[in-house]
Amino acid sequence: MQKDFKNKVVFSAAQPSGVLHLGNYLGAIKQWVELQNKHKCVFSIVDYHAMTVYQEPKKLREKILETAMIYLAAGINPEKSTIFIQSDVSEHTELAWILNTIAKIPELELMTQFKDKAKRFRSKVNVGLFNYPVLMAADILLYKTDFVPVGEDQKQHVELARTLARRFNNLYGDIFVVPQAIIRKEGARIMGLDDPLKKMSKSAKSPANYIALTDEPNLIKEKIKRAVTDSGKEVIYNKEKKPGISNLLEIYSLASGKTIKQLEKEYEGKNYGEFKKDVGEAVVGFLEPFQKDLKKLKENPDKVRKILQSGAEKAKLIAAKTMQEVKKAVGINY
Ligand code: AMP
Ligand code: TRP
């Protein structure tokens, strides 16, 4: 079935765990905001995914609401897009079960994120963590999603969703759309400030790794000032030789709207100190309107709860319909 452009479906999500950081914003959320003017967008707060690593219940409850506020403050407009909490739409776990029956163990064993986390948790790794990409595939396929805007680290998971969609369709008939990842060139992999060889991460041990979206301006400037840079003193983009400076250039470019080439020119003959000071200011300026809106939303959690409730109702309508088709296709409804 050919859909016209306006009717293409976009789905994406973030986990309400740890702190949402500049990498999440630049790699994912910034794209979401732009896409909502072109397509039908559905954005979820995936609490069941967050639970694959133990979350303190009280904290999780707060984080779920805060993540929703972050989406809204970043410019996701509930009149244009559907925003909801994953666990409010039970079809996600229902479909995940069915997809589990066609996903293969070796396929899941290949997932880089699982391998990384399994290394950290060793024998204590839980089955949910292993299964996580299947639930993610269910999230995506339930909405017959065409496009999945994510950061680079999720590419492999979207690939699995594509495989499962095709496999299901071959076995049971054409139910699912085979989704496509949308990964931007710039910002798809923002690196840690304390270690520019690893991605900026929610679960990093040290807060020096990331700029949390809720960090105060002075802290942001301080963190960027202390960011690990490279030997030499020229501000040029070269990911291999200058991973630290390149990461800052990428952040600066996305925060200011200037191209990396322009910035390289601007900083010819200037030193790292000057450059970092300006990157700090650009990031603070970029986050200022967002942080203002976030503060306002925090004063009005009930408004956000209402948005989530009506988002869940809208999502449920689509999810339930797909789930009915799926049940019929596999032969379990009567
Ligand atoms: P998560 O923090 O794992 O819930 O990720 C939410 C979204 O942010 C996903 O689309 C990720 O790919 C994206 N993301 C996470 N970390 C980074 C990063 N360091 N750089 C760019 N995108 C990221
Ligand atoms: N696994 C994703 C992450 O950690 C979050 C996620 C869950 C997701 N379900 C999704 C992203 C569906 C895109 C589409 O970033």
Secondary-structure map:
Elements: E1 9-14, H1 22-35, E2 40-45, H2 47-50, H3 57-74, E3 82-85, H4 91-100, H5 105-109, H6 112-121, H7 127-142, E4 147-149, H8 155-172, E5 180-182, H9 217-226, H10 243-256, H11 260-266, H12 272-298, H13 301-330
Parallel strand pairs: 1-2, 2-3, 4-5
Task: Report on the architecture of this protein.
The chain is mostly helical and 334 residues long. The protein folds into two domains: 5-183 and 301-330, HUPs (Rossmann fold, 3-Layer(aba) Sandwich); 207-295, Tyrosyl-Transfer RNA Synthetase, CATH 1.10.240. It has helices at residues 22-35, 47-50, 57-74, 91-100, 105-109, 112-121, 127-142, 155-172, 217-226, 243-256, 260-266, 272-298, 301-330, and strands at residues 9-14, 40-45, 82-85, 147-149, 180-182. It has a three-stranded parallel sheet with strand order 1-2-3. Strands 4-5 form a two-stranded parallel ribbon. Helix 3 crosses helix 12 (272-298), helix 7 (127-142) crosses helix 8 and helix 10 packs across helix 12. The structure holds adenosine monophosphate and tryptophan. Residues 14-15, 23-24, 27-28, 150-151, 153-154, 188-190, 199-200, 202 line the site of adenosine monophosphate.
State the gist of this model.
The chain is globular. It has helices at 22-35, 47-50, 57-74, 91-100, 105-109, 112-121, 127-142, 155-172, 217-226, 243-256, 260-266, 272-298, 301-330, and strands at residues 9-14, 40-45, 82-85, 147-149, 180-182. It has a 3-stranded parallel sheet. Strands 4-5 form a two-stranded parallel ribbon.
Key traits:
334 residues, mainly alpha, Rossmann fold, Tyrosyl-Transfer RNA Synthetase, 2 domains, three-stranded parallel β-sheet, two-stranded parallel sheet, globular, binds adenosine monophosphate
